[in-house]
């Protein structure tokens, strides 16, 4: 049967009626190839349309016996996915600023969207309850007679109207709010839980019904019943099988093409799902994207070029789940569970360049949806972007020298920092200020009066010593909060905030040069650092003024946050019992000063009616206004090094991981990733070493890692990114181990027993050789005693 020419099916006619933003002739998304001809769903859908019209059935009607039989035969051969869609159409362009919309519109839309919505049709009465359905299933399993269950599934999934009739709590109730989908979730769960245990013909009948539903001829905007049907269908567990991916893809395309107001409702309905029910469709979507990118068999799915809209559709629907997770009062699942690690194996720099070059157009890029990119991918993007900027800076310096016919000094390729240990902080500040034009070059540190070449170890030591000095309580720049075990900015006023800029620059250099710092800022600090993620063109524009909540204050000053929480919940007379005014008192340099939280605040009492405003102003003053100049300097210092579009991809938690690394140690993972030189992994010395190290308490493991690498933090990519090496050194067995922190290398004498390893690595001092062989050897001592 020729399926190349046929009357427009409901899916295509529906596309013709979409708003311009979703019905564009712009270049298509993922495939980036030429635009495909007008769409075809193949002979199967054409046959379906003709038979349905011939039968005089409406969209809500069931299948005739002949049509059901035809579809059963067709479906069994087409669910492999390769015959059902031969000439796919490009997905209508996904909105180019979808990333900003996910961050802004979900929060800024009013509680109820005011636009008028079409009324829902009258639904046929359906009276089956969850209990009755479960009883039907039990009888069918015991007797083998599935007729009643088969009829239920066949009828229920035949159309959107039937789906609503079966699962809506009140058949003709409106339920037009974001707070209540009106769906009987318990019944939906029971039906889906039982579906995969039913005979194959029943499962196929459900898929036929979904096809029938998706072919509906849409006229005008979607009703709330349509949204409910999409909400129910996206939870179908059958989409775990690649044989259903063609149908799944068309469902996802229709959901992706809904209006923003419809998406707003779906997001708030999705966040009401239980954690398990929420996670299941998320995992199916991630698997769908992975399988589409890297199918197990070449012919398992239609050619990627002919269905380039699959991945953009699935990614956008996944974005709705991510938005639901974000707006939920407490995250339903960790944000890291939205990562698709398969994307670590694609050309993500090409995705990044596409996003940079076509960010405001309709070209799809995974960077439009940063929640799906793992921190490993984002770190790699930032590193490669940094390397390109480093090369560009070095090239400009060389070209400038050559054009002036000056002698080329290879030091031009580096950010060379020369400091004295005795004046470490002042020298570092002077050097970074004087060489601020070179901040994007490769960092190289020299300690004055000490021979040596920095291959990475001296840089790590410089960061370590500088961080310790800056964050020392005696220095006064930061206050250590004992209750929350973090540092926060001191609010003292001064004429020069250059030292705060130094700390920001230091953090930027650490990210830029892939160095993990032992810094303990609250998560809110990193949110401020991304507010905004790129430096404003107006130098006087405020930066770092992130909206602060009681939860943010809890991270920093938990005792104060608890007190303000009690004020908000107090049932008595707030004004008489607390006797508070709209002002706050702070000690600065030994002097207590008062600050009004609003004009005339010292004369405005806090009452039961205005206490929320008081608490919000109090929090904003502590976390924003009182430290605005300090943080602005810190912000500009960080962005002077890390000014990159890649920062727009990051969450605050991810910035923290890039700056500080991962604090959790997994020595078993380090053992698996370790490289060996002079030893084999099964030799006695190596086996004894790992037996001893794995038995160490956490504190000793951190000290060993610090001894070997110069840091006790793990990079974002995990232990494998350390490139940790164990080398053999031919010396007597009573010698101590030696480390090369530049190369994350530890050199072991040929110890023969665990006792020998313990004696030299546990009960004595560890020697660190900071410099490579052939250069002056400097030895330091690190205590590793335990009590």
From TrEMBL:
UniProt GO MF annotations: ubiquitin protein ligase activity
Active site (record annotation): 742
Domain of life assignment: Eukaryota
E.C. no: 2.3.2.26
Keywords from the UniProt entry: Transferase, Ubl conjugation pathway
Domain HECT: 435-760
Gene3D superfamilies, per the entry: Hect, E3 ligase catalytic domain, Hect, E3 ligase catalytic domains
GO biological process, one term: protein polyubiquitination
InterPro entries referenced in this protein's UniProt entry, alphabetically: E3A/B/C-like, HECT_dom, Hect_E3_ubiquitin_ligase
Catalytic activity, reaction form: S-ubiquitinyl-[E2 ubiquitin-conjugating enzyme]-L-cysteine + [acceptor protein]-L-lysine = [E2 ubiquitin-conjugating enzyme]-L-cysteine + N(6)-ubiquitinyl-[acceptor protein]-L-lysine
Keyword Transmembrane helix recorded: no
Keyword Nucleus annotated: no
Name of the featured protein: HECT-type E3 ubiquitin transferase
Origin species: Gasterosteus aculeatus aculeatus
Lineage of the organism: Eukaryota, Metazoa, Chordata, Craniata, Vertebrata
């Amino acid at each position: 049967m020729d399926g190349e020419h046929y009357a427009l099916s409901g899916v295509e006619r529906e596309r013709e009626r979409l708003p311009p933003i979703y019905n564009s002739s712009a270049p298509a998304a993922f495939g980036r190839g030429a635009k495909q001809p007008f769409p075809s769903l193949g002979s199967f859908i054409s046959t379906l349309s003709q038979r349905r019209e011939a039968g005089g059935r409406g969209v809500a009607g069931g299948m005739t016996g002949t049509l059901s039989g035809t579809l059963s035969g067709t479906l069994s051969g087409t669910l492999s996915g390769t015959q059902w869609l031969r000439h796919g159409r490009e997905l209508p362009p996904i909105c180019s600023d979808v990333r900003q919309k996910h961050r802004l519109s979900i929060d800024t839309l009013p509680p109820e969207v005011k636009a008028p919505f079409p009324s829902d049709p009258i639904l046929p009465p359906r009276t089956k309850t969850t209990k009755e359905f479960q009883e039907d299933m039990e009888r069918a399993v015991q007797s083998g007679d599935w007729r009643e269950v088969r009829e239920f599934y066949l009828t229920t999934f035949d159309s959107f109207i039937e789906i609503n009739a079966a699962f809506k709590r009140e058949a003709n109730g409106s339920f037009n709010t974001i707070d209540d989908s009106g769906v009987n979730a318990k019944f939906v769960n029971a039906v889906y839980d039982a579906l995969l245990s039913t005979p194959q013909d029943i499962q196929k009948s459900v898929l036929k019904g979904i096809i029938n539903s998706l072919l509906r001829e849409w006229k005008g905007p979607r009703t709330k019943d349509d949204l409910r049907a999409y909400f129910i269908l996206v939870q179908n567990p059958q989409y775990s099988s690649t044989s259903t991916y063609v149908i799944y893809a068309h469902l996802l395309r229709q959901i992706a093409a809904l209006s923003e107001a419809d998406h707003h409702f779906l997001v708030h309905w999705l966040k009401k799902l239980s954690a398990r029910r929420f996670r299941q469709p998320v995992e199916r979507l991630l698997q769908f994207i992975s399988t589409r990118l890297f199918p197990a068999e070449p012919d398992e799915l239609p050619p990627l070029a002919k269905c380039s809209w699959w991945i953009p559709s699935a990614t956008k629907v996944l974005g709705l789940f991510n938005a639901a997770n974000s707006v939920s009062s407490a995250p339903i699942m960790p944000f890291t569970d939205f990562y698709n690690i398969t994307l670590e194996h694609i050309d993500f720099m090409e995705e990044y360049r596409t996003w940079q070059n076509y960010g405001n157009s309709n070209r799809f890029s995974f960077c439009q949806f940063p929640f799906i990119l793992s921190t490993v991918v984002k770190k790699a993007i930032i590193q490669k972007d940094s390397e390109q900027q480093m090369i560009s800076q070095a090239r400009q310096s060389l070209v400038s020298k050559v054009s002036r016919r000056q002698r080329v000094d290879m030091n031009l390729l580096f950010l060379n920092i020369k400091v004295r240990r005795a004046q470490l902080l002042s020298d570092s500040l002077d050097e970074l200020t004087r060489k601020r034009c070179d901040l994007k070059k490769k960092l190289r540190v020299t300690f004055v009066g000490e021979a040596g070449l920095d291959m990475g170890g001296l840089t790590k030591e410089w960061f370590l010593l500088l961080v310790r000095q800056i964050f020392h309580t005696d220095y006064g720049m930061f206050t250590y909060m004992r209750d929350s075990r973090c540092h926060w900015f001191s609010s003292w006023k001064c004429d020069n905030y250059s030292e705060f800029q130094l700390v920001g620059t230091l953090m930027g250099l650490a990210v830029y040069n892939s160095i993990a710092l032992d810094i303990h800022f609250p998560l809110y600090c990193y949110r401020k650092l991304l507010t905004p993620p790129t430096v404003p063109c107006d130098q006087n524009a405020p930066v770092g003024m992130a909206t602060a909540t009681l939860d943010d204050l809890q991270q920093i000053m938990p005792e104060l946050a608890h007190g303000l929480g009690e004020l908000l919940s107090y049932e008595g007379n707030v004004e008489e019992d607390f006797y508070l005014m709209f002002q706050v008192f702070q000690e600065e340099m030994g002097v207590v000063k008062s600050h009004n939280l609003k004009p005339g605040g010292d004369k405005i009492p806090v009452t039961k009616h205005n206490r929320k405003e008081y608490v919000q102003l109090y929090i904003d003053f502590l976390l924003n206004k009182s430290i605005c100049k300090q943080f602005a300097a810190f912000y500009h210092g960080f962005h002077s090094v890390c000014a990159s579009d890649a920062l727009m991809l990051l969450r605050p938690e991810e910035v923290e991981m890039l700056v500080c690394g991962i604090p959790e140690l997994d020595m078993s993972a380090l053992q698996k990733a370790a490289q060996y030189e002079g030893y084999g992994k099964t030799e006695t010395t190596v086996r004894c070493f790992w037996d001893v190290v794995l038995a160490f308490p956490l504190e000793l493991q951190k000290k060993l890692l610090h001894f070997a690498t110069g840091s006790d933090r793990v990079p974002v990519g995990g232990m494998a990114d350390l490139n940790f090496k164990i080398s053999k050194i031919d010396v007597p067995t009573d010698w101590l181990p030696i480390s090369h922190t530049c190369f994350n290398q530890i050199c072991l004498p040929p110890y023969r027993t665990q006792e020998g390893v313990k004696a030299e690595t546990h009960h004595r001092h560890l020697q660190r050789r900071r410099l490579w062989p052939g250069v002056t050897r400097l030895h330091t001592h690190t205590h590793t005693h335990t009590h």
